């Protein structure tokens, strides 16, 4: 049975995606930091019609780098990586180390290993990773966070390039959400630019279903917003407070 693995299933975005895929009858393997919450999400997925649901507690901040659990899943339909935390732009060295580990290093490593496993399968599979529009241009408001997301986007492009050269049937998808309303962003002022996690999850589920490659903005109107921001001349951009 082909299984979709969701790393970070206990996050608001991960949980929203689990609900959608469960309703489609998918077999799921879910990981998250919160064991109790993960169990509730898994039970809800079963009630919604998931063909099979397995779970594993995984905290990337204390993870030893082993991906044996991915090999034990069996045939993979897709691996979805959702982990991410907001950065403290004025954080100390230890704080920045922790943030880079979660936002880039661990995710990039999981992406590389997942690509390798998917490439070994005769029919390949999909690697879907959640990035952010913050990586599209360096802005004073979230420069360090955006730098991590830009690095992740570059690395995923490299993985897609490698898969193409190796003729591996691996579809690499980068999801770029804008501002998502969740516990992680609850302290931020409300804005019409915020989207519910369900809206982003719908883009993710559609991309998985259509078996496409490339970059997907979520919601799609963020592509136009970020295109405009990227095109603002530097001399003008530096006078803004974006």
TrEMBL record:
Any one GO molecular function term: oxidoreductase activity
Supply the InterPro entries for this chain.
NAD(P)-bd_dom_sf, SDR_fam
Q: Which Gene3D superfamilies match?
A: NAD(P)-binding Rossmann-like Domain
Which UniProt keyword terms apply here?
NADP, Oxidoreductase
The reply to whether Transmembrane figures as a keyword in the UniProt entry is no
State if NADP is listed as a keyword.
Answer: yes
State the Pfam families in the record: adh_short
Q: Which family does it belong to?
A: Belongs to the short-chain dehydrogenases/reductases (SDR) family.
Q: What is this protein called?
A: SDR family NAD(P)-dependent oxidoreductase
Question: What organism is this sequence from?
Answer: Roseibacillus ishigakijimensis
